Amino acid sequence: MDRKTFLSYLGTGATALAAASAGLGVLEGKASAMSGTANHLFGFKTNRVSGYFEPIEPTKADQLVLPKNFKYDVIAAFDDVINPAGEKFGSGCDYNAFFPIKGSNVRGLLVNNHEYSTIFSIGPVKDGKMSADQIHKNLYYQGMSVIEVYRDEKGVWKMDTTSTHARRINGFTKFDITGPAKGIPALKGATTATGTFANCSGGVTLWNTVLSCEENFEETAAVSKLPDTHYGWVVEVDPFDKSFLKKHTALGRFNHENTAMGLAADGRIVVYMGDDKKDACVYKFISKNKYDKSKGRANSALLEEGTLYVANLKSGKWQPITLEAVTKAIAEDKEAQAKFKSQGDVVTYCQEAARFVGGTPTDRPEDIEISPFDNTVFICHTNNDNHGNIHGHITRIFEAGNDLAAMEFDFEIFAAGGRQSGFSSPDNLAFDSNGDLWVVTDISSSSQNKGVHKPFMNNGLFVIPTSGPDQGAALQFASGPVESELTGPFFTPDEQTLFLSVQHPGENTEDLSKPSSTWPHRSGENMARCAVVAISGFKLES
User: In the 8-state DSSP scheme, what is residue 303?
Assistant: First the structure.
């Protein structure tokens, strides 16, 4: 009997006990009180996930596999035209954020991140050196796409290529630099930066803009002969205003995964951030001033001034990453003293500064989300084979006094990857209105279906119910095509649709005539395309 079947025979209390013994925690408190209040998830008359879909089994298929009663529509795929100007949808699609137009749940702007290029977007790189054309394509196809999407009268989601809002933001787009690193010598005196790339995950601000995170920027910056200190930041864009483009240096420069924004008890903005690198740290930024809803987008200024902190998991304290703290820590290090002369230097070389002040190295902290029900903070520690954490885990932080601005915290392992849970290498997170946690996985393409990763097969999307009979169990909702990962889960406000990116199918292809994936299997094509899809329910069997 497998674990899912075993759990189905247990009552709620026993399920929680079994889940705990398997390394899965449960979300207590406000989430369970939400049961029965939504009644709309995927268009079904319920907000309880468990019991309304039959979990799928792992698969090696070159398909996006969903449970019965669910369908997906490919909205936009690599190289699709997105607007009347002929701009093309980018490569390596990742994070999604949906912004309703006039309050609609069926028409809005979808912002999608583009993390990196593949052989399908720039062709094979000969002798490890890109041609001038490949360098140009590499910059063009990374960054972000803003597209207009809608659901037609037949319930099919589509892209509106006539949209006046649709546009690309990429390696050629100009950004204003804000915060302590603006104009400093380490940035060659720059007050603006050309381009954004390596855009991984992100977040939505309280004033309805998007924060997009520059992650593994080093290679693209080097091959394009661009100053690397201009990249590795959090950028802010307004989907509805093409002129609003900023890089916020106060949030630090590192291999950003995403942002999660919340409010402190006193009204200041708090932004949690992960650094997707082995032995990297977890960060949070607290603004100097308080959020004022009436100011709208002007609240963006809150991201320009404040204090950046790093987590020390051993002491349970947030350590300030300030010039004062760094200077004290490097009092005997003459070489470091020469590097850190201003707060701008501190945020520019943030990874080093964080370790100097006592930041704890962790296992690839990727997506971070704040629970909308109890202010606990969830972190995907994807994996770290440097010291045997092969399958990763999800950490849950409890801030002192339930205040996001607290300087002390406690934590637990909410979910542990591995055979006992049925998933490996958690990456992105999303909560639904019932408090259930949606998790996508990031087993590297080179490890999929090999060794200890064989049982998990292709990467997938899982949901961990936090109340009800399947409380604490990781139920597989989707499986991605060959050599892909599923990224950027994002619900429409009414939760009838889930947007999801299918990133890098066929990533290990070396010969374009012999692709390892051809998803989404377009007629007459022999290639793979990354794409963003819309998932919805369409039939509830009695």
Answer: G
CB 113 within 8 A of CB 95: yes
Cβ atoms of residues 374 and 279 within 8 Å: no
b or e along 504-539 (b: 16 or more beta carbons within 10 Å of the residue's beta carbon)?
bbbbbbeeeeebbbbbbeeeeeebbbbbbbbbbbee
**Tokens 């207009």 belong to residue:** 148
Name which of 305, 95, 118 is nearest 199 in CA terms: 95
Could you tell me if 392 and 382 are in contact, meaning their C-beta atoms sit under 8 angstroms apart? yes
> Quick one: tokens of 60?
């090696």
Contact call for residues 347 and 308 (beta carbons, < 8 A)? yes
> Peptide bond preceding 124: is omega within 30 degrees of 0, i.e. cis?
no
The tens place of each residue's pLDDT in the chain, 542 residues long, gives: 344 443 343 334 444 444 544 566 666 544 433 443 445 678 766 555 555 688 999 999 999 999 998 999 999 999 999 999 999 999 999 999 999 999 999 999 999 999 999 999 999 999 999 999 999 999 999 999 999 999 999 999 999 999 999 999 999 999 999 999 999 999 999 999 999 999 999 999 999 999 999 999 999 999 999 999 999 999 999 999 999 999 999 999 999 999 999 999 999 999 999 999 999 999 999 999 999 999 999 999 999 999 999 999 999 999 999 999 999 999 999 999 999 999 999 999 999 999 999 999 999 999 999 998 899 999 999 999 999 999 999 999 999 999 999 999 999 999 999 999 999 999 999 998 888 899 999 999 999 999 999 999 999 999 998 777 777 889 999 999 999 999 999 999 999 999 999 999 999 999 999 999 999 999 999 999 999 999 998 654 43
Q: What's the one-letter identity of residue 498?
A: L
- What the block records as the tokens of 493 is 């406000």
Q: Tokens for 495?
A: 């939760």
Query: What are residue 452's phi and psi, to 5 degrees?
Result: -75, -5
Q: Which residues pair with 146 in a beta bridge?
A: 111, 167
Q: Which residues pair with 112 in a beta bridge?
A: 96, 145
**Structure letter (DSSP) for residue 26:** -
What are the helix and strand counts (H, E) for the chain?
10, 30
DSSP code, position 323? H
Interior/surface letters 364-384, b for 16+ CB within 10 angstroms, e for the rest: bbbbbbbbebebbbbbbbbbb
pTM exceeds 0.85 for this model? yes
Sign of the Cα torsion 223, 226, 228, 230 reads negative
Spell 174-197 as b/e; 16+ CB within 10 A means b: ebebbbbbbebebbeebeebebbb
Secondary element (H or E) of residue 335: helix 334-339
Q: What spatial distance separates the first Cα and last Cα of the chain, rounded to whole Å?
A: 26
Q: How far apart are CA 501 and CA 429, in angstroms?
A: 13
CB 356 within 8 A of CB 331: no
Backbone angles phi and psi of 3, in degrees to 5: -65, -40
Q: Which residue spans within 434-484 are E strands per DSSP?
A: 437-441, 460-464, 475-479
